[in-house]
Amino acid sequence: MIDTHAHLYDEHFTQQWDAAYAEMKQAGIEEVWLPNCDQESWSSLWNLYQSNTSFCKPMMGLHPTYVKEDYAQQLAFFQKELQSKKVLAIGEIGLDYYWDVSFRDQQITAFETQCHWALEHHLWIDVHCRKAYADLLAILKKKEFKDLTGIIHCYSGDAREANTLVDLGYTLGIGGVLTYKNANLYQDIQHAPLENLVLETDAPYLSPVPYRGKPNSPAYLGLIAQKLADFREISLAELIEITNQNARALKAYSSFE
Fold first, then answer.
1. Is the peptide bond before 35 cis (omega within 30 degrees of 0)?
2. Which NCBIfam families match (predicted)?
3. Which of 31, 97, 87 lies closest to 64 in space, CA to CA?
4. 160: how many CB neighbours lie within 10 A of its CB?
5. Rounded to whole angstroms, how far apart are CA atoms 30 and 92?
6. Correct CATH for 2-12+28-253 of 3.40.630.30, 3.90.1150.10, 3.20.20.140, 1.10.10.10
């Protein structure tokens, strides 16, 4: 299985890397894709990738909740890094209005700037969106971004927004929320083609049942896969094959090995 979104450079994993890695491999994880947060997290992410190039795949970007007063300097740093480093995608980027909208305009500027980087470098985007789907869709529908593609990480919009994003050519990242008793996620994605879904954990966050409330791990990805397979009434093996193919198509788009 391919976990398309997990923060393995978090201390929860790096302080016990050998044991964590062994657990993930035993659970059938073949790759984990690493979304970045900001300039501070970048060095840890890159170092982890460099020591595990066949297992970890790096993304580069400025996460929307890290867009603060210094966002222009952070963007300048990443723009320079893109000139010398090969990455899988631009991410984790996007919009987040859940906690604070003080930097809403700056988040939009940072997101659009990084979308242009993706087009310039023929990369896809890994998108974080929370309580901001109206603005996200307005941006992605712009003519200048018609050739963009990517993953809407931890999809949390409604069914209409899911259908719109699929029509725009985006893939929806499905994680541990799918296993939560009171979540509406399955109803919101039930009409999305399997060819537009990938699996993720967002580890160490959003652990699936029965690990909710504890640190998440890519080793739990099989629980999410099984839940989605049950919902779609197909075998686990078929679900994994399809979602892996979808992930590999994005790797091919970025020409990343």
1. no
2. YchF/TatD family DNA exonuclease
3. 97
4. 11
5. 21
6. 3.20.20.140
Neighbours of 170 (CB within 10 A): 22
> Could you tell me the residue ranges of all domains in the chain?
2-12+28-253
| CA separation for the pair 156, 130 (Å, rounded) | 7
| pLDDT tens digits along 92-136 | 999 999 999 999 999 999 999 999 999 999 999 999 999 999 999
Q: What region, left, alpha or beta, does residue 150 occupy, with left being phi > 0 and alpha being psi -120 to 50 degrees?
A: left
Report d(CA 239, CA 257) in Å as an integer. 23
One-character DSSP codes across 184-234: -HHHHHTTS-GGGEEE---TTSSPPTTSTTS---GGGHHHHHHHHHHHHTS
Enumerate residues 6+ apart whose C-beta is below 8 A from 41: 9
- Hunting for tokens 């060095």 — which residue is that? 43
pLDDT in tens, 173-196: 999 999 999 899 999 999 999 999
